[in-house]
Amino acid sequence: MSTPDSDRRWSPDASVRAAVAGELALLTPEVRSDPAEAARFLDPEFTEIGASGTLWTREAVLAALPAFEDDSDPGVEVLEMTGTLLAPGWVQLRFVTVREERRARRSSLWRLAGDGERWLMYFHQGTLTG
Q1: pLDDT at 59 exceeding the cut of 90
Q2: Whole domain around residue 58: which residue ranges?
């Protein structure tokens, strides 16, 4: 039986790089303003615990994303991004975001899709830090 990493297409470094690329894409206004584009990065079983403490489903996040985007938004700064291959097909990312004066510590889990080609965000949590 093969595992997601059995053909060595996804080394630990390549797996983390792919998850980081997906995370950074999800933070761009272009992806966040287009639910169909954002959906390409979210696992069908995706859930999120937002910085407010709200539990979000994939469908709720995709429906709400355009409402969060604002043409006057200065964007988000990403700091301290680190990633770890937890097991074949699973990567955890940890980082800090700063948007205006709002700072949050974040963690996400990325899972290799069943096709073995794409990394999808499975879970995300954000906690305000000040």
Answers
A1: yes
A2: 12-128
